[in-house]
Amino acid sequence: MNGSLHENSQKTYDGPLTASNSMLSCINLYYLASSSKIAHMHRSLSEDVKEKPKVLQRVVQDPRAVHTIRRSAKSLAECVTLSGHFELGPAKANTSYISVIMCIQHPFSRGNIVSHDYYPPHPLSPPAIDPRYLSKQIDQSILVESVKFVDKIAKAETLAAMLVARQDPSADIKSDEGITKWIKGNIRTLHRPIGTAATVHKSLGRVVDKKLKVYGTNNLVIPTHLTSHLQRTMYGIAEKAADIIKSDWGRYERHGCAMVGGRQDGCLAIPSVLRTPNSSAKRDTEGSIRTLKHT
Question: Fewest C-beta atoms under 10 Å: which of 103, 129, 159, 260?
Answer without folding.
Answer: 260
